Each structure stands twice: as structure tokens, then as C-alpha cells.
Amino acid sequence: MKRVLMLAGDYTEDYEVMVPYQALLMAGLKVDVACPGKSEGDFIRTAIHDFEGDQTYSEKPGHNFVLNASFQYLKLEQYDGLFLTGGRAPEYLRLDPRVLDMVRYFMELKKPVAAICHGVQLLTAAGVLDGKEVTAYPTVKPEVLAAGGSYIEKESHEAMIYENLVTSPAWPGNAEILKGFLKLLGVKII
User: Fold this and answer.
1) 0.70 cut: is pTM over it?
2) Looking at the domain assignment, is residue 180 inside a domain?
3) What are the helix (H) ranges across 11-67?
4) CATH number, domain at 87?
5) Among 167, 62, 185, 56, which Cα is nearest to 115's?
6) Quick check: is 190 in a domain?
7) Domain count, the chain
8) At what angle do helices 174-185 and 14-26 cross, to 10 degrees?
9) What DSSP string describes 111-156?
10) What share of the chain is helix, strand, coil (3-state, %, to 5)?
């Protein structure tokens, strides 16, 4: 059974943790969701970001998501892939040196990594995008470029694969990023 580590935090986008978590479980994977400073059984608050015609997304309260793994006890060698959720959480998660070390670990070993929306901020902060092509929420473009990556514009429902990375601009791309992540993990659904 393939095992995935999903990093999330308070105000992670609701659909970018709930949908991937449930879909990966449905595909037969073991998914551990963890957050720095929290333990198994604790919860994170999520936010719902919607596209309602304003200059940026709107934000509403989401659900409480119960974590099923303790951050301090994670053993990275147990995982086949890494899923980086979006929303506002990556903004502060990227300040945690252990989170950045985790991202570097998966990237250096070329294990599958999925990053949706603002989750790409963890890749930029970890310094692992030099020469790589990714997509993300459009406001992350300057960070991608500053980190030496190439920002590829995609519609919100699209995703793209580059080497061991699969990225998507926002939660409407859940289906495509999950298809790409499963492909990189070598998981086939019949």
C-alpha cells in the first residue's frame, strides 16, 4: 500500500485538504495529514475560498479537519509521496525549518510531490524550484520566478506534471492534480 504525507495547517483551503484526502483514501492509499505544532487527534480550521468575480478570491469559514498524524513523530522514509495543500497555511508553514527540510527530502529523492494553489509557496521557500516548471495560484507567480522556476499559466481546473512534481492553480483542479499525483505514484485505478 502506498503511503502519502499531506502537510496542512490552520486555514488550509477546505477543498484542498478534504477532497484530496478522501480521494487518495478511495484510491487505496494510506494518507497521513500532519501540521507543525499539532498532534494526531487535534484539528485544523479550514477556509473556503471562492471565485465570485472579485479581484481575488473570497474567504469563508470551512470545516474543522481532524489530523491523523503527529508532526513531531513523522518518519519521512515511510512515505512514497508528499501532498502540499494550499490556502493561507503555506504562508506561515514555510517559516518552519522542518517543513522546508521535508520538502527538500522528497524533492532530492525525486519522490512524487503534489502542490496545489498556494502550496507552491512551500516549494519556493525550500529553494527546490530552480529550473523547474510549475503552475500555482497567479499571485504566487512572483515567488516562483524569484526562486528560479518557470511559472506556467494554467486554468484553475488544470494541472501540470514536471518531473516528479504535479501542480495546479486552485481547487477546481483537484481532479487533474490527483490524476497526475496517482500517475507519479504508479497507482492505477481501473
Assistant:
1) yes
2) yes
3) 14-26
4) 3.40.50.880
5) 167
6) no
7) 1
8) 40
9) --EEEEGGGHHHHHHHT--TT-EE---GGGHHHHHHTT-EE----T
10) 35, 25, 35
18: nearest Cα among 1, 55, 43: 43
Cell representation of residue 161: 506534471
Instruction: Residue 122: give the domain boundaries.
Output: 3-185
Mean pLDDT value across the chain: 97
Give the per-residue pLDDT at 52. 87
Distance between CA atoms of residues 10 and 64, nearest Å: 9
Question: What cell was used for 93?
Answer: 508553514
Q: Tell me the three state secondary structure of residue 89.
A: helix
Cell of 127: 529553494
**Amino acid at the residue 33:** V
For the chain (length 190 residues), average pLDDT per consecutive 10?
97 97 98 98 95 86 97 98 98 98 98 98 98 97 98 98 98 98 93
